[in-house]
């Protein structure tokens, strides 16, 4: 299986006042195409920083991040924004839906950055909502949906552009156990049936069981390599 993500000697240092804080210490990592990876580790271990670097939301201090043969660590801010819009779907703990828009319009939002016409945007959003089991809720606004349903809308929005991979940051952290299991089952289906590569940060060992591999970070370094397979 070919690698989708190749990371070599990755360092990330933040300047906090007069102090420099190194969050990641020389990470080397390969993520195969079609994998579902759970990133785990204690608070402050660097897992969200690593996720943001893979998703192009942040840039490394040094090291290489190659995704589908593209060196995203060399990209400018504008190039990264364009790359993200084409390749990455984001799912966050808090759904980040627009409260004044219904589910359909929320899912269409990423498509406004494309050349698609209104009819095709609507059709693509309907397909995405059907895939997450919410076609019958497309006219509902976020405050008319449960937390689990709102996260499904967020996932539909993340996949509507058919991105190369999904970045999920604690996607079940704000949900009850039943809703969390439904969302994790949906992510697992997107991976196993539809072939989406997924990288997910979670603190929940139960959530990590849905992934195909688990990567543990501690104090900015990977531990338990090679990858543990479920």
From TrEMBL:
<keyword id="KW-0547">Nucleotide-binding</keyword>
<dbReference type="Pfam" id="PF00005">
    <property type="entry name" value="ABC_tran"/>
</dbReference>
<dbReference type="InterPro" id="IPR017911">
    <property type="entry name" value="MacB-like_ATP-bd"/>
</dbReference>
<dbReference type="InterPro" id="IPR027417">
    <property type="entry name" value="P-loop_NTPase"/>
</dbReference>
<dbReference type="InterPro" id="IPR003439">
    <property type="entry name" value="ABC_transporter-like_ATP-bd"/>
</dbReference>
<dbReference type="InterPro" id="IPR003593">
    <property type="entry name" value="AAA+_ATPase"/>
</dbReference>
<dbReference type="GO" id="GO:0022857">
    <property type="term" value="F:transmembrane transporter activity"/>
</dbReference>
<comment type="similarity">
    <text>Belongs to the ABC transporter superfamily. Macrolide exporter (TC 3.A.1.122) family.</text>
</comment>
<feature type="domain" description="ABC transporter">
    <location>
        <begin position="5"/>
        <end position="230"/>
    </location>
</feature>
<dbReference type="GO" id="GO:0005524">
    <property type="term" value="F:ATP binding"/>
</dbReference>
<keyword id="KW-0813">Transport</keyword>
<dbReference type="GO" id="GO:0016887">
    <property type="term" value="F:ATP hydrolysis activity"/>
</dbReference>
<dbReference type="InterPro" id="IPR017871">
    <property type="entry name" value="ABC_transporter-like_CS"/>
</dbReference>
<dbReference type="GO" id="GO:1902495">
    <property type="term" value="C:transmembrane transporter complex"/>
</dbReference>
<dbReference type="GO" id="GO:0005886">
    <property type="term" value="C:plasma membrane"/>
</dbReference>
<keyword id="KW-0067">ATP-binding</keyword>
<protein>
    <submittedName>
        <fullName>ABC transporter ATP-binding protein</fullName>
    </submittedName>
</protein>
<dbReference type="InterPro" id="IPR015854">
    <property type="entry name" value="ABC_transpr_LolD-like"/>
</dbReference>
């Amino acid at each position: 299986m070919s690698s989708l993500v190749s990371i070599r000697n990755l360092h990330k240092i933040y300047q906090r006042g007069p102090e420099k804080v190194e969050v990641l210490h020389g990470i080397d990592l390969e993520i195969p195409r079609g994998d579902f990876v759970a990133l785990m580790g204690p608070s402050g271990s660097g897992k969200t920083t690593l996720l943001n670097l893979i998703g192009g939301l942040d840039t490394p201090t040094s090291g290489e991040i190659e995704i589908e043969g593209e060196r995203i660590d060399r990209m400018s801010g504008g190039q990264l924004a364009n790359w993200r819009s084409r390749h990455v779907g984001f799912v966050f703990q808090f759904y980040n839906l627009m409260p004044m828009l219904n589910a359909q319009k929320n899912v269409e939002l990423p498509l406004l950055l494309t050349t698609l016409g209104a009819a095709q945007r609507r059709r693509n959003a309907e397909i995405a909502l059907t895939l997450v089991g919410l076609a019958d809720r497309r006219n509902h606004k976020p405050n008319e949906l449960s937390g689990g349903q709102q996260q499904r809308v967020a996932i539909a929005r993340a996949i509507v552009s058919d991105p190369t991979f999904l970045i999920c940051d604690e996607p079940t952290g704000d949900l009850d156990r039943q809703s969390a299991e439904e969302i994790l089952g949906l992510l697992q289906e997107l991976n196993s049936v539809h072939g989406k590569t997924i990288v997910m940060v979670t603190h929940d060992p139960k959530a990590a069981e849905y992934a195909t591999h688990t990567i543990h970070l501690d104090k900015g370094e990977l531990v338990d390599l090679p990858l543990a397979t479920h």
